[in-house]
């Protein structure tokens, strides 16, 4: 469905993305793995249309991406992005006005599932609560591609379990999920495909089970081998 071919993104002194190609299909959860500075966030921003690549192409169902393609993509960046004076209910209404595909009832259900108070203002929320809120707004959109940049960051170990199961339960068969995390062992349990990014390019990719069988090791051990 989504195909990136030979993407390159250079900043003045850094090449963030270097000849990177990958493909994602609906019904799968993909892990975007790599150490700090390897290019994961830049890649997501390029796919979300927030950063323009210097070269390379991105297509959805064979059609080059335009500003209209943005409706197919729900992107959750690492940064929190809420107005502090709004409470969770207001934030839901704001998103509903912004995105035609935003399901307010689903959002309220997700708030309850993540034990967030609909009346609490963003400015009074802890970083872990804001992390959950970001996930709730992102999963409430009916998008074909869901990109979550570090969804488990700042979330305690008990809540992480819940978030992982919430993500898995709220993904339909016609949605593709691309998720980055440094918590590789936690991602390993749920992803069915892994992309290993190093210096802005994809150095290994494949079906998680096939990779484990062919290499005789876990995704975590492959990660350690590639990046040690
Ligand atoms: N706006 C920018 N200007 C200049 N350099 C940038 C910019 N954004 C990213 N970079 C550089 O591009 C490279 C890739 O950064 P990116 O944020 O994509 O990595 P990452 O894999 O997401 O890292 P992390 O795991 O730490 O979030 C890094 O060397 C970074 O310093």
UniProtKB/TrEMBL annotation:
One of its GO terms (molecular function) is ATP hydrolysis activity. SUPFAM superfamilies: P-loop containing nucleoside triphosphate hydrolases. Coiled coil: none annotated. Pfam families: ABC_tran (PF00005). Residues 2-224 form the ABC transporter domain. Keywords: ATP-binding, Nucleotide-binding, Transport. Transmembrane segments: none annotated. This is ABC transporter ATP-binding protein. The lineage of its organism: Bacteria, Bacillati, Bacillota, Clostridia, Lachnospirales.
């Amino acid at each position: 469905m989504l195909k990136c071919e030979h993407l390159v993104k250079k900043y003045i002194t850094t090449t963030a993305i270097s000849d990177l190609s990958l493909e994602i299909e609906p019904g799968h959860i993909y892990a975007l793995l790599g150490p700090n500075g390897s290019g994961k966030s830049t890649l997501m921003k390029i796919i979300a249309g927030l950063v323009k690549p210097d070269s390379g192409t991105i297509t959805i169902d064979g059609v080059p991406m335009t500003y209209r393609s943005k409706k197919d993509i729900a992107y959750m960046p690492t940064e929190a992005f809420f107005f502090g004076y709004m409470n969770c209910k207001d934030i839901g209404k704001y998103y509903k006005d912004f995105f035609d595909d935003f399901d307010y009832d689903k959002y309220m259900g997700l708030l309850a599932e993540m034990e967030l108070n609909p009346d609490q203002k963003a400015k009074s929320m802890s970083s872990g609560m804001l992390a959950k809120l970001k996930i709730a707004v992102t999963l409430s959109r009916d998008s074909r591609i869901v990109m979550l940049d570090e969804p488990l960051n700042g979330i305690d170990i008990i809540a992480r379990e819940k978030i992982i199961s919430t993500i898995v339960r709220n993904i339909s068969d016609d949605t593709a999920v691309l998720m980055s995390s440094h918590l590789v062992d936690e991602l390993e349990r749920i992803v069915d495909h892994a992309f290993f990014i190093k210096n802005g390019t994809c150095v290994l990719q494949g079906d998680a089970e096939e990779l484990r069988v062919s290499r005789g090791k876990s995704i975590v051990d492959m990660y350690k081998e590639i990046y040690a």
